Amino acid sequence: MRDEFGDYGIDTITNFKNPKRIRLTVACVYLESYFANSDRGMVAKAIQVLDEHKIELDVFPGFGTKTAWNTLPNTTEPIADTNDAYKAIYKAAKAKIRQMGCGFVIPLPVIFGEFVHRGYGIAPKVPGELTRLCMISATGNSDQMDFLHEIGHAAGLGHEKNDSHPRNFMHQASPRTTIYKYQIEAFAKAPFSVG
Question: What is the CATH number of the domain that holds 92?
């Protein structure tokens, strides 16, 4: 198989550390439809996993709790699975992130909320925008890797459907525990990567 980062069907190196420490910038907001009161530990898990590969995950704000301050008002309905709906929520999230005082140049917006599209998380490409939109449902896998999986999509990674080792974080099986070298290299090239 091949994607924009080269051949990856044979890449099974799981202990690769990026030669230079890089930083991924992510900004999170919540929708009123998100029925949990926190990120369920997914951000902390992603920070831990990426740190093992010399990648810093810098998340704004620095806490994973839903509050009135970081929640978009009037968002009680699930987000429709249409380009127009994704574009509208992307713009609302970016405005909220600016209002909250995020100083990142190009943050990846991650929205914790409910959506019509099936799955625990989605990363739709918003037409005309540099970064994708990541959305995470309050219902998710027990391995706490949904957040990392979706920011992987935002870095240009696809699902590892043909992987004989279904523990890769881009696989849809659970529990997911590994990251391959080419995936670390993809994070280093992501639009929301600094360093």
Answer: 3.40.390.10
**Length in residues, the chain:** 195
Total domains present in the chain: 1
Of 11, 19, 51, nearest to 181 by C-alpha is: 11
Sign, Cα dihedral of 36, 27, 121, 48:
negative
Boundaries of domain holding 98: 2-194
List of residues 6+ apart from 14 with CB closer than 8 A: 178, 179, 180, 181
Q: What is the pLDDT of residues 5-59, one digit of tens each?
A: 444 445 678 889 988 999 999 999 999 999 999 999 999 999 999 999 999 999 9
Give the angle 125-103-25 at the CA atoms, nearest 5°: 45
Q: Which residues of 138-151 are buried (b: 16+ CB within 10 A; e: fewer)?
A: bebbebbbbbbbbb
φ/ψ of 138, rounded to 5, equals -70, -20
pTM: 0.90
